[in-house]
Design goal:
The structure is a homohexamer of 135-residue chains.
Chain A (H helix, E strand, L loop, with lengths): L1 E13 L8 H8 L8 E13 L11 H16 L2 E2 L14 H12 L7 E10 L2 E5 L3
Amino acid sequence: MIYVTRRASFSASHRLFNPSWSDAKNQEVFGKCNNPRGHGHNYDVEVTVAGDPPAATGMVIDLKKLADIIETEVIERVDHKHLNDDVDFMRGLIPTAEHIAMQFWKILQPKISEGKLVSIKLYESANNFVEYRGE
Amino acid sequence: MIYVTRRASFSASHRLFNPSWSDAKNQEVFGKCNNPRGHGHNYDVEVTVAGDPPAATGMVIDLKKLADIIETEVIERVDHKHLNDDVDFMRGLIPTAEHIAMQFWKILQPKISEGKLVSIKLYESANNFVEYRGE
Amino acid sequence: MIYVTRRASFSASHRLFNPSWSDAKNQEVFGKCNNPRGHGHNYDVEVTVAGDPPAATGMVIDLKKLADIIETEVIERVDHKHLNDDVDFMRGLIPTAEHIAMQFWKILQPKISEGKLVSIKLYESANNFVEYRGE
Amino acid sequence: MIYVTRRASFSASHRLFNPSWSDAKNQEVFGKCNNPRGHGHNYDVEVTVAGDPPAATGMVIDLKKLADIIETEVIERVDHKHLNDDVDFMRGLIPTAEHIAMQFWKILQPKISEGKLVSIKLYESANNFVEYRGE
Amino acid sequence: MIYVTRRASFSASHRLFNPSWSDAKNQEVFGKCNNPRGHGHNYDVEVTVAGDPPAATGMVIDLKKLADIIETEVIERVDHKHLNDDVDFMRGLIPTAEHIAMQFWKILQPKISEGKLVSIKLYESANNFVEYRGE
Amino acid sequence: MIYVTRRASFSASHRLFNPSWSDAKNQEVFGKCNNPRGHGHNYDVEVTVAGDPPAATGMVIDLKKLADIIETEVIERVDHKHLNDDVDFMRGLIPTAEHIAMQFWKILQPKISEGKLVSIKLYESANNFVEYRGE
C-alpha cells in the first residue's frame, strides 16, 4: 500500500457567521472572521489516495487524472469565489476549514476509482490547517 | 549601508472592478478577479529599510519597532477586511497588488525615522508579487 | 472527526550534554551539538487537536483560543531562552527535540478542553523534526 | 514512542516507460512523462524512525548517523543520475515515485538499528508526493 | 514604477558537457553534472516586468496574459524535456542555469508589450539560482 | 552579466548586548534578545556573485567551488557556535544580522576569484533578514 498525494490551490473569501445567532454572539465566537463584508485566503488542499501500485504502471492512480478530478470537481467551484454566497455545496454551512474539507471529501470520494481516498488536508494559511480522514 | 527587511502577513478579500466601466468590460479586463462578491488572499508584505548601523547597536532600525509600525499602520487596517469596502486608504482605487503596495509606501514612509524606506514587496500568492521602490 | 493544527514558532539555544558523562563521551555522542556555550535554532511547533465540529460553529476548537494557549503555556517560556538554563520544565532533561515535544505535550494536554490533543510536531530545522502522539 | 524524521534531497532524471507496451500505449498511460530522452526533478525524501528515546541521550536515533545512512545507502546512488539507466536497484522497475519509495524502504530498513523505520515520504515536487509505510 | 513578478515551474533534465573537450576535462569542470545519461531538476522561473500602472486598471500588465506568454513561449518548450536534446533554443549551448535564463530573456522580451522586462530569475534548486537583467 | 546565488545554512546562538551600557539600557534597546544566556536561530545565507559566463562553461563561477568557499570560510566557523563567545571574527561586535553579514562580506570578498561578490543576504528567520552589498 502506498499513499499518493496531489496538492492544489485556490483563492476565496468567506465570513464566519451563524445566522441563527445575534450579532453580539457571532462577534464573540468568530471575532474578526465575522467581518460582514468578508475576508479571504489562499487555500492549499492536499488529496491523498491509497492503493497498491500495479507493477505495469508503478502508479496507485494516474496523477494527471487525479489532478483533473480535483480541478473540475472542487477547485473550479471555489476558486475566486465567496464561499458563503457563490458555492452551492457550502450553502447552509459555516465555511470553516473543517466544513470545507468535509464537503470536499463528499464530492471527491465517489469520483476516485483507482485506489481509495484516505485524507483531505486543507491549509487556510501556513499556521492553520485541518485534516479529514472520513472517520 | 545595509538593507533590513521585516515580513508581515494579512488575510483580506477584494474585487477588481472599475465602476466607470460596463460589466462586460470589467469581465474582459479583470476576468474571475471581477467576481461581484469578491475573493481573497493571504498576503505577505516585506518592508525594507536601508541605513548605516551604528556600532553601538549594530542595528539599522530596531526590528521590534519596525514590526510595531507595520502592524499598527497597515496590518490592523487590512487584516480580515474587504479591501474595496472596509479600508479607507483604498477608497476610489482598484485594489490590485500594485495599488496596495503604493498606498502602504505612502503610509509607512513618514513613520520610519531610523534609516530610509527603500522597498515594499507585496505577495498576493507565491506565484504573483509586486515591488514598489518609491520611484 | 477532524484534525485541526495550529503552528507557532520560537527561537532558542541549547546544548546537548549529559552531566553524568565524561567530556569525551559527550563529544562522542553529541558531536558539535555539545559545544559548551551552546548553539540555537528557529523551532516550529505544530499542535494537532482532534474532535467533531458542532454544526453551530463548524470548529473543533476556537483557533484563536488554541493559539493563545500555545503562546502562553509554551512559547513565552521558551522563546529567546536557553533551553538548558532558563526553562524550568526542561530542568534535568537533555534538551533534544524529542524531550521538548514530550514536555510540550505534558503541559498542553490538560489545557485543551475542546477536542483532544493528538500530536505535537516539533521542527528543529527543515531537515530534522520529531512527532509525539502521547503513545 | 517518538517519530523522528530526517529529510534529504537529490536531483535525478527518469522516463516513465513500460518496455512491454507499444509506444502508443506508453504515450497514453504516461503522457509527457514518457519523453524518450527523459526529464528530471529535485526530489526530497523524508525518512521517519520511531522509538522510545533513552533518558541518557534523549534521542531515538543519532540524527547524524541516520543522515549518514541515508546519504550513503540511497542519496549517493541516485543523485545526479538517470533512474532508469544508472541505478542498479531500479533496474526492471518503472521509476515512479511509488517504486522509488518502496526500494528506498527495502534498502534502509535493515540498516536502521536504533528505533524502527516507519515511513518513507518522497516528494517529486511540492504538488506530488507519496508515502510508503511498509504495509 | 512598479515591478510585477510572475512565477512558473517546469521539470527538465540536462547534462553539463562541452563536446569540444575531452571526457577528462568535462569531468574535471562539470563533475557529477556531467553524468552521460543526464540528471534533472524542478526549475522555478520568476519573470519581472516594470511599468507604471494606469489608474483605470491598477495593473502594470495583465498577470493572466503574462502567465500565458510564459507558459506558451517557454514552459511548454522545456517542461518534461531534456534540455540538451529536445529544446531547439538551447542547441549548441551548455544548458547551465545562466544560459537558460539568457535564452528565456531573448524569447520573452519581444513578447512583452505592456511594461518592460527587467529580470529573469531561474532557480535550479532552493540553494542555487541565477538572475539575468539584460545587462 | 549574470547574478549567481548560492544558499547555505547554519545554526548558532547569540546575545545582543553592549558591554559599555548598563543592564537597564541593554534591556531597553535589545529587549528579549538581551537574555544573558543567549538564544538561537537557524540562519540562511545567500551569497551572490556577478559575472559574464564564458561560452565554454556557461558558468559565472563553479557553484561547487563557491559552495566550498562558503562552507570553509564562514559556515564551519559559525555553525553550532555561540556568536559572541566562539567566533573570532565577531569579537568586539554586537552579533546582529547586520554585523554578521558585513563580516561575511569581508571574509568572502578576497576569496572569490571568478566573478565579483555583489551581495550577502542573511536570514535570521523567515520574517527578518538583511542584505549587504558592500556599499
